[in-house]
Design goal:
single chain; about 45% helix; alpha/beta; 6-stranded mixed β-sheet
Length: about 210
Amino acid sequence: MKVSRRWQVARRRGSILLLMGCCLMLWMTWNNLQSTVNISTQESALVAARLDLPLLSSKAAEKSKTKILGFADYNYREYAIRWFHRLAMLGYSEQVIVAVDRKAIEFFSTNVTSDIHWEALIYPPCVGFKYDQRGYRRQIFGRRWTYIFEQLQKGHHVLMTDVDNVFSRYLPMQELEDAPYDVFHAYSTSYPPHVFDGMGFTVCGGMSWLRSA
């Protein structure tokens, strides 16, 4: 009986400690979420300073016909702001954040400074989202390529990147524009395997350059 009672007391204490730990984790998560969501106008302007980025490149004055697109949903909004400032500090001026869902569009409409260039990617809601999240993601990626095609039709060359790509130095877009090729892709891993087995390589959807016709 004494052993059983001790076990019950230990279990209760363990449950209390577990509950306290969960509350602490929830509190920390909430604080982090608030610091991410409440990116005020002033805070977004200071992101680059916090990153300790290198000085602005002297090549910043060079203009190209390439539009650098970084696609971001609401969950990647902070990455997108850092991505934008990183490119600006390296010397680029052609980068644009493309908001791909309604929450992201609302966020960029009210919470970023005017120096951050962004555009909205409007797409019809996926009817089967609640039942097929993979189909929802495929729809966003499909709309992304439709958006890129629209930019190409407008005369822009396009460098498509993910906003979690880290650019380490300035490379002029003219090098791509002057090349005799119309498309550049980044190498990927061996996924999907059947494509890799048939071709010997696969390309990464997170980094491509395409020439306007």
